Amino acid sequence: MPTPTKENYLKAVFFLSQKNQQITITALANKMKVSKPTANNMVKKMEQNNWLLYEKYKPLELTQAGKKKGALIVRKHRLAEMFLAEVMGFGWEEVHEIAEEMEHLKSHSFFDRMDEILGFPTIDPHGSPIPDKNGTIPKSTYINLTTIKAGEKVRLCGLLKSSKELLLYLNKKKITLGTEFKVQQIERFDNSFEIGVTPTKKLVLTYEVCKCLLVQKL
Predict the structure, then answer these.
(1) Residue 9 contacts by C-beta under 8 Å, 6 or more apart in sequence?
(2) Structure pTM?
């Protein structure tokens, strides 16, 4: 029987695979913040579940069953986040930790009903795509804000990472998904962006923040 811990490891492998990088025991251990022997022991258990292929000194490889299982865990997590935000009124900075617990619920009908109540959303509160019931993840066409030139207008559509610190920072700036703004200028010294949200409201975003923002040109 899959345990929450085992599912968390699978989700970590799944996310590493989405970055198109070789999945090593070291990379998995670093992501899970555990020792290599601990990660290695869990990898063997996941192999027994037919979630991945493991051969000593070679990168880990997800099986088709592992890919689908990983995607469905992500689906439950992101649907839970959307439900918490849209129906229950939680802030986008509050939903992650609660969804971490909800994603391990076994009832698929529970999440299918949640999906229906929400109107079958394709993204979560942070703009990340929600896998469908078959584990298929919609392709994103968003681009990084750092690729935008001065004078161009964009809409914020997603986040490259959604740490609580970043979300609270964006809250202070009153920037949310859907916020439209114009890049007024880019500072040559530190690559910070001056943006105009309204004719009278201008903000300066550091390059580190800009790297986390995914946008769509208008």
Answers:
(1) 28, 32, 39, 42, 43, 46
(2) 0.89
